[in-house]
Design brief:
Length: 431
């Protein structure tokens, strides 16, 4: 994809009520594209107070994760101007910011930018400039039913082996009573099944790319990782796992149908079973990159006619005050505040009392390793921080879904992934 826009050279100022009325006297309206996850949905209710105070009308476009990425990327890259604020993450923010697709964010002192967790600030910045503000941040961890594990006589330890995790899933698997040992992402997409399988591959000593930027899907380590994943879900997962992403599995878990789930730490905010326990992500000998790092963040596409009002809203929606607003809201409470973005959240006594997952979540975030390593010679855990990765990851995710459904063998799916990635990287001029 060609980059046609230029970097902005000036920062934009902020005031809470600036932009409440347009030049023609009508109320300012902001169109906001968000992922349809729970914290984003809750924001629509909490933000009613923002509209009451500022007069800014908020128009929400809530989209499934994969659809959001596709539509936001297309609109932002072409300067379509459909949205004033967009949800993006760590893969996009530094690249889009450096390319001038999104505006730099500079907030006033009340925002306390130093309170943002360092991993989140770094992942959403380019050359030290913040381009997207984290609404919530996450790593990944194991969430499992303690009652089922106890009944089956199994335990899951922090950083357990995949062998033990598979054994625990097998022991809890009881499909005759509607319980499946493991519920894991299978829906195709670089941020869906690709993200989860990428962390498994890392833990097996595999990576998406070699040090010379050639694709590495054809290694024995990658084959071992995918074979384990496919066997685990085919044997102990729910039917149709190739169609399950975050929201589908959250529903299954809350219906009591999952023994264990390995996914975003933010899921813990929405788990209803009192028997849930947490453990750090498993690995197959290599813990580096076994748990991902991500933030759903808010950014302003370059050229938005409502830029100042958009910046003001983002400052409010990602602030300490917003966390307090959710915690004190009659419909939500302290167990439902967005987490993983600010250090101060974890020091709030009410949050500590309500969030039994807080310690495990913060440990996962702090242990995530996005920096390049000998095994993973690029920035990013479950993604690669290059513009071409979404295309590579999309092709990879489709092949992994085909392997999971049985339409292809693991070997065939990995060979097709290798071929697709090779063509994309060659065309982009990497070698």
């Amino acid at each position: 994809m060609s980059i046609k826009k230029t970097l902005l050279t000036t920062a934009i100022g902020f005031s809470l009520t600036a932009g409440a009325a347009a030049a023609d006297g009508h109320a300012t309206e902001l169109t906001i594209a968000i992922v349809n996850n729970g914290h984003m949905i809750n924001m629509q209710t909490v933000a009613e107070a923002y509209t009451e105070e500022t007069g800014v009308v908020l128009n929400w476009v809530s989209l499934e994760e994969g659809v959001l990425r596709e539509q936001v990327t297309s609109d932002t890259a072409t300067g379509g101007g459909q949205y004033d604020i967009i949800n993006i993450g760590m893969q996009e923010a530094p690249i889009w910011g450096a390319a001038g697709w999104i505006e730099p964010l500079n907030f006033d002192d009340s925002y306390d930018v130093d309170d943002i967790l360092p991993a989140m600030a770094a992942g959403l910045s380019a050359d030290g400039q913040l381009y997207a503000a984290p609404f919530y941040g996450e790593s990944s961890m194991v969430m499992y039913r303690g009652d089922l594990a106890d009944a089956a006589g199994v335990t899951i330890a922090d950083n357990d082996s995949w062998e033990n995790v598979v054994a625990a899933a097998a022991a809890m698997h009881d499909p005759d009573n509607g319980v499946y040992g493991a519920c894991l992402r299978g829906k195709p997409g670089w941020g869906d099944n690709g993200a989860f399988i990428g962390t498994i591959a890392n833990s097996f000593g595999a990576a998406y790319l070699n040090a010379d930027m050639t694709p590495a899907f054809d290694t024995p380590e990658f084959n071992a990782a995918v074979t384990m994943y496919v066997d685990l879900l085919q044997n102990y997962g729910p039917p149709g796992s190739e169609g399950n992403s975050f929201n589908e599995i959250l529903a299954l878990y809350n219906e009591g149908k999952c023994g264990l789930w390995i996914d975003a730490t933010i899921a813990a905010s929405f788990l209803e079973n009192e028997n849930v326990r947490y453990a750090q992500s498993p690995n197959a000998g290599n813990p580096v990159g076994a748990n991902w790092l991500w933030a759903w963040a808010m950014a302003v596409p370059t050229g938005s006619p409502n830029s100042e009002a958009a910046h003001d809203f983002i400052q409010w929606a990602t602030s300490k005050e917003y966390v307090q607003a959710v915690g004190n809201h009659p419909d939500f409470g302290w167990g439902s505040v967005p987490t993983g973005q600010r250090a101060s959240t974890y020091a709030i006594p009410e949050f500590q009392a309500a969030a039994g997952f807080a310690e495990a979540e913060l440990a996962a975030i702090n242990s995530a390793a996005p920096e390049a390593t000998d095994i993973k010679p690029y920035v990013g855990v479950q993604f690669v921080a290059i513009p071409e990765f979404p295309e590579i990851g999309t092709a990879f995710g489709q092949e992994m879904a085909a392997a999971l459904s049985g339409a292809k063998s693991v070997e065939e799916a990995l060979a097709a992934s290798q071929e697709a990635a090779d063509a994309i990287l060659r065309e982009a001029g990497y070698y």
